[in-house]
Amino acid sequence: MSLAEGTRSSEEALGEESRPVHKQQPAETQPAELCTTTIQEQVEQDPHGPSSEYSQVHTATPRTLFEEKNTPGIRSQPLSLEWAFGINQDLPVYSLHDDDDRLVILYGCAHVAVMYNHTLNSQHILQGHSSPISCLCVSEDRRWVATADRGPESLVIIWDSYSGIPVQTLFDSHPDGGVVAMALTKDSKYLVTIGAEAVQRVCIWDWTSEVEGPVCAANLSPEFGLQNHIIFNPNDCTQIASNSGSQVVFYSWDNDKLKYTVPQLTDKTFNKTVGSFSHSVFHSGPSLAFTATSAGNLVVWDTIRTPVLLQPHNKRAVKLIHLQKDGITVLTVTDSLLVTGDTRGHVKFYDENIQMINWYSHFNLSPVRSISFTKELPSPARNTSGYPEDCTLEAKHFAVRNFVISTTNATVVHITAEGSKLETLVQEHFEAVHAVACHPGRPLVSMASNCGILKVWDYQSKTCICSRIFETEKHIQCMMYDPQGFYLGVGFDNGSVYVLDGLTLENECEPFRYARASITHIAFSRDSQFLATADAGLTVTVFRLSSNNGRKTWKYLGRHHSHYKHIQDLVFGVHLDSSQPRLLSLGMDRVLVEYDLNSKEDDLRLLSTDCIEQSAVPKCMAWYPPITKENFILTANDQYKMKLFNCTTKMCRKTLLGPTYGSPIEKIAILPVSSGGDPSARYLSYITKDKVGLQILPLDGNPHKSSALICHPLGVSSFACSCDGQRIFTAGGSDRTVFTWEINLNALEAAASLGGQDLIPFYSVLEGGRDGELFRELEDYFYYCQLRNQGIDTMETRQVSTRIPLAEIPFVMRALGFYPSEQELEDMLNEVKFSQYVDTGKYVTDIDLADFIKLYVNHRPAFGISMNELRHAFQVLGYENENGERTLNRGELLQLLQARGMLDCFQSKV
């Protein structure tokens, strides 16, 4: 199958997680030095006739991708990645297209690569990796883009930059650590990768063929250091160079053999300080290579000539040239020039004799991370008077390609050589982003990071409307707008709290500095009269909006050390019998605390404290929307359960199975009703450790009513919902990224409908399903309970039904292998007993088979009892025997189980 035949639309490809394997017709094995046909030429010369004309790769042009982006596509997923705010400054940035009416660059961002059209202010996001992208490269003609990651399921994906379609995927290329560096040959036919294994492996791939596995490979000794940069010789693709901070390795390959040499270079070689290596390049013919160092030096390598056998990869250091005082961070080649970037943000050009001919030092940039030149050459017919003069005696006009510079502070600039014009393309957060908040009435999203930068973006036009840099307090941990959008509360790592104007970001009052630990949560009351914060010192602080000489200002009300473990969540609500606000906090200590907002100044009091969990640890909470007659507080815990508590009595009214996507829910938020949407149809948004998801309300435990996908592989720190309920914004913390996810509720409802109606989704959760042994046992237990309830020895006619008394629930649960604690049994009975009380005023005294199945599915452990939990129980309850092992006495264990139950005993021991 040809490459043209194998490609499909980008929507189809991304719908399958962007991991299709599209391959070309097997090519005849040829020596690498004879491969002169580019991949683009192969596509254009595809011999498979009419079918190739239907391939989107074959028909794509450099303008295809962003021309099609102007036409909105059909979203088939509940959540679709719409925009990426942020950049991974550790990866290079490449210039893809640069002409009079378009400027397109490529950069990495968390687990995706972004093709950004600065001219149109548009993005095309390359999605396919489930782990952060560790390296990327582009072909010389900018047609092909390769991305790789270092996750547990490491992938290398090659994309067509014209259409945005993945055309090849290399699975398990480096299964023990992923890929740390890679490069394409000049003709784009071969790809070289270096793994991040303990013993690094270098592999060369013919990615255009159907051959499985690399063409050749070699293992490197750990003593060479972590090789993190690699490059092909553009004049001879059989020659390769790689380097770590301490060692340069030169390779030569032919067919299935890859040889390498490791030339030695120390400070004693030339009696000069060498410094650590940054980048290596080939230049001035096939024999010479150069390596830049952190000491401002340039190492010149040349081939060792032997009369017996010429080995081009057998090189030695012949010269150490001191170019400058500042460390060189980037070394690259454009045309016949060597180009360096350094720690002072300067870019310098050298000719073949290593004579400086021009430099750019007036841009005030941070240390340079990468330099990428456009593929378009300056036109020979163009007037060169606009170009700067070089520093030679002739003072010629220095006509060079335009180029893109990326720096270590997450800034990308474009340099137009004619006129030496600088234009900032991207300027993002260069430290962890933990705080994100959405304006309650306008299409604005605020995001802030540990570098003290706070930005407000219009997420419809994708423009930054204002920003502020905090000089003294930098580590911003959380943010929240008040419900009216007048104020923006900002919490810092040092305990400071700022209240800013919601639009101008100016201070509304002097910063509060009552807390000594990091501010973890911040919340406003619904009437915007109260502001509350929770800090890592386990303390809740409340501020009140007061009038002072006719001007409203925020004043301190009080603090209370209300928890003895980490505070998980902090929310405001409203009393049922009035419009007065109420404040609740939830701790890892399993305690739900309510505060008295009518307390006197500096005397914040508590109204109630309730222990809401027995063994699980609560993670978050929210006010359940008014879709039922009874008002609830919704919580989620670390055992994948969601619970509804009566907001007045704090009684657990319902326990439900939550989303089970690898990790428990970390935070939840009720999705606002969109304009024109059905107010009775409500939805819940949530994040887990690394995923973002949606859940259809009301909750019932149906697993098909939930959907989630990976948003930040390294972990999600926070999220926020737009005021129109059409977008979710997630902050990735250490990946320095905020993603915008577009919501498609119709797709979520369609997926739930495909899961079946009534009990069908719950049957699928039972082992064996509707026809399985567990279900048949459950039916038998129901009949046994009816027999026992009517009397085993009775001679009267049996009354067979599908219902059993509530008192039989514990026995059936245990018969099914689920042994709940007394507290869990009480929650089950209350859940059934009061299920119709609000509607009818009567208690329910029995339960039918359908409701029992739901009760069983929702209450039993989501994944059963693991071996680790069993070992931990023995560690807590057991004692050491003569062999030093933790054991339990059989008699004592039986007594504990019969008298108190294992869970109650376990908790008392803990």
Largest sheet: 4 strands, antiparallel
Terminal Cα separation, in Å?
A: 63 Å
Strand order of the largest sheet: 1-55-54-53
Low-confidence stretches: 1-51
The number of helical runs is: 15
Binned, the helix content reads 10-25%
Considering the protein shown, what is the CATH homologous superfamily of the domain at 761-859?
Answer: EF-hand
Q: What is the percentage of strand-forming residues?
A: 35-45%
- The radius of gyration over CA amounts to 33 Å
Task: Walk me through this protein's architecture.
With 910 residues, the protein is mainly beta. Among the domains are: 761-859, Recoverin, domain 1 (Orthogonal Bundle), CATH 1.10.238; 867-907, no CATH class. It is built from 15 helices and 59 strands. The strands form 16 sheets. It has a 4-stranded antiparallel β-sheet with strand order 1-55-54-53, with no helix packed on it. A 4-stranded antiparallel β-sheet has the order 2-3-4-5, with no helix packed on it. It is globular.
